[in-house]
Design a protein that fits this description.
Helix content of chain B: over 70%
Number of helices of chain B: 13
CATH topology of the largest domain in chain B: MetI-like fold
Distance between the termini of chain A: 65 Å
Helix content of chain A: 25-40%
Oligomer: heterodimer
Largest sheet of chain A: 9 strands, mixed
Number of strands of chain A: 20
Largest interface: A-B, 60 and 59 residues
Structural class of chain A: alpha+beta
Number of helices of chain A: 18
Radius of gyration of chain A: 28 Å
Strand content of chain B: under 5%
Number of domains of chain B: 2
CATH architecture of one domain in chain A: 3-Layer(aba) Sandwich
Shape of chain A: globular
CATH class of the largest domain in chain B: Mainly Alpha
Number of strands of chain B: 0
CATH class of one domain in chain A: Alpha Beta
Strand content of chain A: 15-25%
């Protein structure tokens, strides 16, 4: 009798359990569609990245239409994956290669550029506009193309510009001449009264100090102290000045009418610090060397492709032998930004003896083999540990900035740069006065703390603008992001101000176009995302766009989370 | 004589056994690196160069070949002592072995300092606890042993930096030497060990600077490792103190202090020597984090940056050097064990 009751009870319990289970499964609300936002987890963009991803997730989820999964990878995997098209929606950043507006446009909106950014966006009209703006040297013509490009970019939304990072430097308050230049951080205009040298701390790691290979901020910045280029920058902005060349070529005076021939006149009697001569053939050989070596990871493509010098550049040196000061570049097509590229480190002349079959090793048998012609020489280096710059006493142009109130450069005899492993180590070093200057990179929390204690520590904290931009990328070939309404909905949903204030404590600036405002020459930037989507999030519009695109999202919700990889 | 012969045979057998250990490690390392998403060329170029250029660069290095084609090439290179050249951003094109030899002394210096701290603190506290079972010193030490063992090494490092460098200014916060070579020229490079080089140069001031810089990292890593020593020494001391032969010594009226140090402690140390070998592996792992916390430019920092850039040759070289060191230490400790405790040999 008892066992029968027990059996009955078990049967009832089982029926109830099955019933409740079925009700839960069948009566639950329809699941919101889900998308995945990827970010780098290993600090490539500092330790703020997870917080940024969390905020964007919350902003998109505020529409109530989609849930956002966050996924992260280390930087090497991330790079490989987005380039292969494996990441459908992700955070990325860009630091320009050359200082022209084109470098914020063609890497993103040209078909080839968008492919390497992992967006796979293609628009024939955009490609045509880019070709046209590249070919022109006329600011009005270029301005019109840049406006069209930006306006279209806000309609197609393969990227959503979010913010520009701030540049920052913390230093002893008695150091003068510190300026956060958008291109080159110039040690040779700094001074510390009573001292002939300063020690600097950095978290940056260099690649190489061979101009044919270097393509990262730290290396190219050191190269800019050790090597001069044909053209150089003014002390505080991106305007070009004559460097090794006696003047900046202009149309009719160095630039041919068709924009395909550039002629530079070198200053006479130039030498490298080892005494070897620097003339037109040295410049020609250096440019040819970069292109023929085509070292992996280098900026060779800037000369070959962007500057349209081609695989076998045609460069004339009409007055060699002899004074050997004239150099004529024949381009495959007109390139309006050729002068800018001649100011980039990849175009810096190197001595005749530099390795012609590979990168020049920085140290050979314990001797530093980095030989330039700039205000400083690199006299000692321990890879990834310490770099010592020493005054070049034979610098050819000490009066370079005399018109700007700096009678002679370089001022300090030595600059000693030490490498620290992370932001907190760098902060400790400047806080305890182990070093005189911390230049790149302190995180916003450390920066805020140092700002608070700067006066008592006798430090100065300078905040400037940086040409680095941060943005979201959509792989426009992957559902649901192949639906422009989904991309536009997210453009309505993101709140840039919230990211800037909550994550960066104000050490960043909101950005409404992939072209940041006011950096180089004429300002072609137009805040097209502000015009199209407003300066604060519009949740209602985002929600209705998501609803309109809901079919596309729900169909793809099971596809976007899985990453396919070719193991092994 | 037969005893010595068997020790030799034992040593040889340990060395022979070390070879397959290395081979397994090399294989696992090779496979893990290829399974990991990402590759050195993408890490260097993706997002900056065209997909076609990236594919061409991979092909040039043979990275597009299937793993079973790359594997024999890799093994033959490793066994012929050719570690290749770096593919990572920082050391691109530099011979792997040359870079490793440049960074190794920093890690050896840190490891030695840490082992010294760990042994002194660990054995010292272990004896205090073991010889005063369940009395207040024992309870304090047991608590210390447990807490210190679970503290993350980087957190302890940061705390020591805050207290002793920022707060008290007793020690420099990080780096191996003063960052200003004009005011404080570093010792000339003879062995790469700053402390030893200062001594060889006969400069006490440079030795003082080197030691001041070595203090906090050694203390950090050493303290974390000392927890394990504390607990092992205590447990073994308790075991030997309660053994029959110690009881017999007590029965003979020998003083307790003498019993602890002369009879119990020496026998309690035998298992400690055994775990010493294992501790070295943990030590090197801890050194990676300690080096990062203190901007100590050694093998750990090198390994981290190499993994970041998927620098296959450099990761392989670094891990192989680590493995050789650990295997060598294990063999030496096995042999020492075989010498002091003949039972091990049979």
């Amino acid at each position: 009798m008892l066992s029968r009751t027990v059996i009955l009870a078990i049967v009832v319990i089982v029926i109830l359990a099955v019933g409740i289970g079925a009700a839960v499964v069948l009566l639950r609300p329809a699941p919101a569609a889900s998308i995945t936002l990827w970010y780098n987890s290993t600090g490539h963009y500092g330790d703020t990245e997870p917080a940024v991803a969390q905020l964007i997730k919350a902003q998109i989820e505020a529409t109530g239409k989609v849930t956002v999964n966050l996924q992260s990878e280390d930087w090497a995997s991330y790079r490989a994956d987005f380039a292969k098209g494996n990441l459908p929606f992700f955070l990325l950043g860009w630091y320009p290669d050359y200082f022209d507006t084109d470098d914020y446009v063609s890497p993103f909106y040209s078909t080839a550029g968008a492919q390497s950014e992992g967006a796979f966006y293609t628009n024939a009209t955009m490609d045509k506009w880019i070709t046209n703006e590249t070919a022109s040297v006329d600011p009005t013509v270029r301005g019109a193309y840049f406006q069209q490009l930006q306006t279209q970019s806000a309609k197609d939304v393969p990227y959503i510009p979010l913010w520009t990072t701030n540049a920052h430097v913390v230093y002893d308050s008695d150091i003068t001449g510190v300026f956060l230049h958008p291109v080159v951080f110039k040690y040779f205009i700094m001074n510390k009264p009573g001292f002939d040298h300063i020690t600097v701390g950095t978290t940056d790691s260099p690649t190489s100090f061979d101009p044919a290979l270097a393509y990262d901020y730290f290396s190219t910045n050191i190269i800019n102290q050790v090597f001069d280029t044909l053209l150089v920058y003014e002390p505080t902005n991106g305007t070009l000045l004559p460097g090794l060349a006696a003047q900046v070529p202009t149309v009719g005076n160095g630039i041919s009418a068709d924009g395909k021939t550039y002629t530079f006149q070198l200053r006479p009697g130039l030498t490298f610090t080892d005494g070897s001569s620097l003339n037109a053939t040295t410049v020609k050989r250096a440019i040819q060397r970069v292109i023929s070596l085509n070292l992996q990871g280098s900026a060779e493509f800037l000369l070959e492709q962007v500057a349209a010098l081609g695989k076998t550049p045609t460069i004339d040196t009409p007055n060699c032998p002899g004074p050997c000061t004239t150099i004529v570049f024949h381009l495959l097509q007109p390139v309006g930004l050729f002068n800018q590229i001649m100011a980039f480190s990849v175009a810096a002349p190197v001595p005749w003896w530099y390795n012609q079959t590979g990168a020049q090793q920085d140290v050979v048998n314990g001797n530093v083999k980095v030989t330039g012609d700039g205000p400083y020489s690199l006299t000692s280096l321990t890879s990834n540990q310490q770099y010592v710059l020493q005054k070049n006493t034979n610098y050819y142009n000490p009066g370079l900035y005399s018109a700007f109130g700096i009678p002679t450069i370089p001022i300090l005899s030595k600059i000693i740069i030490n490498r620290y492993s992370d932001s907190s180590s760098l902060k400790l070093a400047i806080q305890t006065h182990q070093i005189n200057m911390a230049y790149r990179t302190l995180n916003p929390t450390d920066l805020t703390a140092l700002q608070g204690s700067a006066a008592s520590l006798n430090l100065k904290v300078d905040i400037g603008t940086s040409p680095q931009i941060r943005f979201l990328v959509f792989n426009v070939k992957t559902a649901p992001f192949n639906d422009v309404r989904v991309r536009q909905a997210i453009a309505y949903a993101v709140d840039r101000s919230s990211i800037v204030s909550n994550v960066f404590h104000g050490f960043a600036v909101t950005l409404y176009s992939m072209v940041p405002p006011g950096f180089f020459g004429p300002d072609y930037s137009s805040p097209v995302f502000q015009t199209a989507y407003g300066s604060s999030p519009d949740v209602a519009k985002a929600t209705s766009l998501f609803s309109a695109a809901s079919l596309a999202i729900s169909l793809s919700m099971f596809q976007t989370d899985a990453l396919e990889r070719n193991w092994l | 004589m037969p005893k010595q012969g068997s020790l030799l045979a034992y040593t040889v057998s340990r060395l022979i056994l070390a070879l397959p250990t290395l081979l397994v490690l090399l294989t696992v390392l090779f496979l893990v690196l290829r399974i990991l998403p990402g590759d050195p060329i993408s890490a260097l170029e993706a997002g900056r160069r065209s997909t076609r250029d990236i594919a061409a660069d991979k092909a040039r290095l043979g990275l597009n070949l299937p793993w079973w084609v790359q594997y024999p090439v890799y093994l033959s290179q490793v066994f012929s002592g050719n570690f290749g050249t770096s593919l990572g951003q920082i050391y691109l094109g530099q011979p792997v072995l040359q870079v490793i030899l440049q960074k190794l002394p920093a890690t050896i210096e840190l490891a030695t300092g840490a082992m010294l701290v760990a042994t002194l603190v660990g054995v010292g506290t272990g004896i205090i606890a073991g010889s005063r079972r369940d009395r207040p010193p024992d309870i304090v030490v047991r608590l210390y042993g447990s807490i210190i063992w679970v503290i993350p090494v980087f957190w302890l490092g940061l705390m020591l930096q805050l207290v002793f460098a920022v707060g008290l200014h007793w020690f420099p916060p990080n780096l191996r030497y003063e960052p200003d070579p004009v005011f404080f020229p570093p010792p000339s490079h003879l062995t790469g060990l700053y402390t030893l080089d200062s001594l060889l140069e006969g400069r006490i001031d440079k030795l003082a600077i080197s030691l001041a810089h070595l203090a906090l990292p050694s203390l950090t890593l050493g303290l974390v490792l000392s927890g394990f020593f504390t607990r092992t020494v205590r447990a073994n001391l308790l075991r030997t103190i309660n053994s029959d032969y110690v009881e017999a010594a007590r029965a003979r009226g020998i003083r307790e202090r003498y019993i602890v140090y002369r009879y119990a402690f020496r026998n309690a140390l035998i298992p400690v020597v055994t775990i010493l070998g294992l501790q070295f592996a943990i030590l090197f792992a801890g050194a990676v984090l300690t080096e990062r916390t203190f901007s100590w430019d050694g093998m750990g920092t090198l390994l981290l940056t190499s993994i970041d850039s998927r620098d296959y040759p450099m990761i392989q070289g670094t891990v192989i050097v680590y493995a050789i060191i650990i295997v060598a230490i294990s063999v030496v400790i096995d042999v020492i064990n075989g010498f002091i405790d003949p039972r091990v040999r049979y």
